[in-house]
Amino acid sequence: MSEAYWQSVMKTGMQVPLDRSLDESTVELVEMLGHPNPRLREDLAYPLLTTWIANGVYDGLLAGLGDGVAPGLRYGLGHDGDVSVIRRSYSALMLAEIIGRDNDEHLLPATTVLGWGDLATSWYVRELDHRGWIPEQGWAHAVAHGADLLAALARSRHFGRLELTVLLDVIADRVLTPTAYGWRHGEDDRLAYAVMTLLHRNALDPGIVEPWLARLGAGIKAPRTRGHLDDEWPSPTAKNASSFLRALHLQLALGVQGRADLRGDAELFAEQPAHRADLLLAVLDQIRGESPWLYRPTTRARPVDGPAGDTPVQ
After folding, report:
1. Which residues, listed in sequence order, are joined to residue 133 by a DSSP beta bridge?
2. Average pLDDT, the chain
3. Are 213 and 290 in contact (CB under 8 A)?
4. Which residues contact 66 (CB under 8 A, 6 or more apart)?
5. What residues contact 181, with CB distance under 8 A and at least 6 apart?
6. pTM given for the model
């Protein structure tokens, strides 16, 4: 159908068209998610599909919708610098909405969501194209959209301690995998928020999270050399990791809120994460380690969290 047709649908309050089947409309809109024209992708396909998901149009068809979207994560995977990243990225964003609906309504079996999780994590660590904004084509933002997908998975009742640990490792893999791209469009904040969502589940103790932080910290320390470095330092990857750790520290320190459109977020984010004070100090240790000549060393032992986990930290 033409752009004008979908514009007319928008003007009806985004009601499902009655002049064609839902299946036909869905197939076309999912295809439009990968279109390089941002008007078709951002202004039409994405809002229509997300509105229909939120309104329950797909509640009986949610597994099929997700199974139709998920293969887009593999479309052109391994390419860098072409338009195929748009389909991968917007497939991730749409899958996050589908999983979010299941998180609210409990519509899907564990096997379905876990299968999508496997596809999502496999794609995310292998994505090469980290462009945020592309002139004339608008947002690609694969790193940020992937973070949103991991956050949706982290909210899922189907993800327990083991699956959440895997998500944490996938995030570290994504941050530390070498790339020539510097993240300039909020990717660090979106990834940190995915980690905060995971931490608010209170399923992982510091014995899991602190070694994970140490792994990230190792990635921001300059190599020890007696001569010159072969490449500039920090590398784009190290700079991304540093920005991510600082974003995580700030979100732990200030606290984050849930999304108003997600029913379970008010409860999930009602309190600070367990072990917050210990985790704050662990993040600070890694940030200090990046520039030990600059920051004052730790001068006291870590405190034990009080009931609210709000013990002041240095």
Report:
1. 139
2. 94
3. no
4. 95, 98, 99, 108, 112, 116
5. 130, 131, 236, 240
6. 0.93
- Dmax (CA) for the chain in angstroms is 72
* pLDDT of res. 227: 56
Structural domain spans, the chain: 1-159, 175-222+233-314
Average pLDDT over residues 91-114: 98
Residue 293, token pair as written in the block: 């000549």
Nearest to 171 by CA among 239, 235, 125, 119: 125
Residues 144/185, Cβ–Cβ less than 8 Å: yes
CA distance 69 to 33: 10
Residue 139, strand partner residues: 133
Contacts of 70 (CB under 8 A, 6+ apart): 91, 95, 116, 119, 120
d(CA 27, CA 309): 47
| Contact of 167 with 147, CB cutoff 8 Å | no
Give Cα separations from 32 to 29, 54, 69, 96, 134 (angstroms): 5, 19, 12, 17, 17
**Strand 133-134 versus strand 138-139 pairing type:** antiparallel
Q: What is the mean pLDDT of residues 197-209?
A: 98
Residue 253, amino acid: A
Residue that has been written with the tokens 């941050």 in this structure:
175
Name the phi and psi angles at 133, rounded to 5: -105, 130
Average pLDDT on 120-134 reads 99
How many angstroms separate the CA atoms of 217 and 242, rounded?
Answer: 8
